[in-house]
């Protein structure tokens, strides 16, 4: 319970103000998505998620994958840590390689 | 050592030349992951004494040392294998040996260095003198948990198939023994310092699997099967590491996966002896060299914290927040101090392990792994 509370507090920082913070999210993509997908996102234990590798996804589907993960795989749900707007920002960023 | 002899002779004529002798026993390297550099550090001085650049993508990089503690073999995520001379502070050889790598090991005799690769999946083995490839062992799978074992052997495991392979180089060309049925999605492995027990952690199911490498035909032995039974799995935002495994007072201390616990296992019987609830998903659970304490760091988003567990009571005796993104810890060889990389603070922090007092901060650029040269003399590191 205690760790859940801390989790919410930490997540709260990312939610502050409601609008996605591009710098914080880019940092999260590189460093934390990068834990599995590689710092350059070309893949590691998780697959390549550079734009050319994921072009078959639309932004909405990708955003759902980020929020809810892929059950049965190592991809975790990020919903406890971010808002839907933030997941949508990340989906767009991954698909285009640029800040939305 | 032989190479140092010439400067010693010359120094007889000039005492100043003694400055050119570099003893490496208390040195170490810190991976600076963003810029692809290594920070050379001195444990006794508690200071950085140099920087070696040009090593490519060092996210998730690790390294091993030659037996003379002069050369480091650095395994980059981008498939780069670099040989670094820490006396001259320069890269002396470098090959791009694969597209995507995860770690490496050096043979007990120091003549072979092996790299495990995600892409193409398998292990490649190189001559430590020249970095020429001497063996290519494709596994058809992402390959993890590569360690050295006594008898010029390497042991590694496949993520996709759940097989452990033992590659024996004692007769030159490798003889491969495959052990199937290690379990679903092994994510990392450890070998005990006596080289006898190899344990792989499983992501795809609750539990670990052990092999007795002293057995002529090792059989998979389940360890803590179904340890999370009855509990919902929590999301894992970073895979734990087993390489920095802890063995303390006759027990293994292992991170759980999907549960905020470390698990205690009797090293002889492999039966559970306890659990300690932790602050978050453990990433490293590392024993201080004397085995009296285990230090634990955690996955995102709880990665600003460290907990210290007393191995006699199995209780948390100290908790503190070094700063944002604590990635790695390395103890001095006798355990009186610990160096901790705090990536987003851009610092390595040094603590006294008895008083928990912070002794020094060393500036570093996105520091991750810390590797002291004493690893040269440890099986599995």
UniProtKB/TrEMBL annotation, chain A:
It holds the Pfam family Cytochrome_CBB3. Gene3D superfamilies: Cytochrome c-like domain. GO terms for molecular function: electron transfer activity; heme binding; metal ion binding. Residues 20-98 form the Cytochrome c domain. Keywords: Heme, Iron, Metal-binding, Signal. PROSITE patterns: CYTC. InterPro entries: Cyt_c-like_dom, Cyt_c-like_dom_sf. Residues 1-16 form the signal peptide. This is Cytochrome c55X. It comes from Aliiruegeria haliotis. The lineage of its organism: Bacteria, Pseudomonadati, Pseudomonadota, Alphaproteobacteria, Rhodobacterales.
UniProtKB/TrEMBL annotation, chain B:
Keywords: Signal. InterPro entries: Cyt_cd1_C_sf, Haem_d1_sf, Host-pathogen_enzymatic-act. It comes from the Bacteria. Residues 1-18 form the signal peptide. This is Protein NirF. It comes from Aliiruegeria haliotis. The lineage of its organism: Bacteria, Pseudomonadati, Pseudomonadota, Alphaproteobacteria, Rhodobacterales.
């Amino acid at each position: 319970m205690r760790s859940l509370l801390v989790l919410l507090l930490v997540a709260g920082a990312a939610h502050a103000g409601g609008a996605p913070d591009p710098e914080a999210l880019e940092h999260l993509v590189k460093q934390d998505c990068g834990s599995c997908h590689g710092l350059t996102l070309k893949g590691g234990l998780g697959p390549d998620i550079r734009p050319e590798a994921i072009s078959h996804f639309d932004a909405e589907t990708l955003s759902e994958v980020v929020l809810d993960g892929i059950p049965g795989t190592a991809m975790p749900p990020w919903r406890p840590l971010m808002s839907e707007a933030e997941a949508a920002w990340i989906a767009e960023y991954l698909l285009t390689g640029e800040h939305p | 050592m032989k190479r140092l002899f010439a400067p010693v002779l010359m120094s007889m004529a000039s005492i100043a030349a003694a400055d050119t002798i570099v003893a490496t026993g208390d040195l170490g390297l810190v991976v600076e992951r963003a810029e692809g550099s290594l920070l050379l550090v001195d444990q006794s001085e508690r200071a950085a004494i140099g920087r070696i650049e040009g090593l490519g993508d060092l996210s998730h990089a690790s390294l091993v040392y030659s037996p003379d503690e002069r050369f480091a073999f650095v395994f980059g995520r981008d498939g780069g294998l670099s040989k670094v001379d820490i006396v001259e502070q320069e890269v002396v050889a470098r090959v791009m040996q694969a597209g995507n790598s995860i770690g490496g090991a050096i043979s007990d005799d120091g003549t072979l260095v092996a790299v495990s690769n995600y892409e193409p999946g398998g292990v490649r083995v190189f001559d430590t003198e020249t970095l020429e490839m001497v063996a290519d062992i494709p596994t058809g799978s992402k390959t993890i948990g590569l360690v050295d074992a006594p008898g010029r052997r390497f042991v590694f495991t496949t993520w996709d198939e759940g097989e452990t392979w033992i590659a024996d180089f004692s007769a030159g060309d490798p003889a491969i023994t495959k052990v199937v049925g290690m379990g679903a999605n092994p994510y990392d492995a450890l070998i005990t310092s006596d080289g006898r027990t190899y344990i792989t952690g499983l992501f795809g199911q609750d539990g670990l699997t052990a092999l007795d490498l002293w057995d002529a035909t090792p059989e998979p032995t389940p360890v803590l099967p179904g340890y999370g039974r009855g509990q919902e799995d929590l999301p894992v935002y970073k895979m734990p590491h087993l390489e920095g495994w802890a063995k303390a007072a006759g027990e293994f201390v292992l991170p759980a996966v999907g549960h905020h616990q470390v698990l205690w296992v009797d090293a002889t019987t492999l039966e559970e002896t306890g659990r300690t609830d932790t602050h978050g998903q453990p990433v490293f659970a590392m024993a201080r060299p004397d085995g009296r304490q285990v230090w634990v760091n955690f996955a995102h988003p709880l990665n600003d914290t460290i907990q210290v567990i007393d191995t006699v009571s199995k209780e948390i005796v100290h908790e503190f927040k070094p700063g944002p993104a604590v990635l790695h810890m390395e103890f001095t060889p006798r355990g009186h101090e610990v160096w901790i990389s705090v990536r987003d603070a851009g610092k390595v922090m040094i603590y006294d392990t008895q008083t928990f007092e912070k002794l020094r901060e060393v500036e570093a650029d996105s520091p991750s792994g810390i590797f002291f040269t004493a690893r040269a003399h440890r099986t599995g590191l």
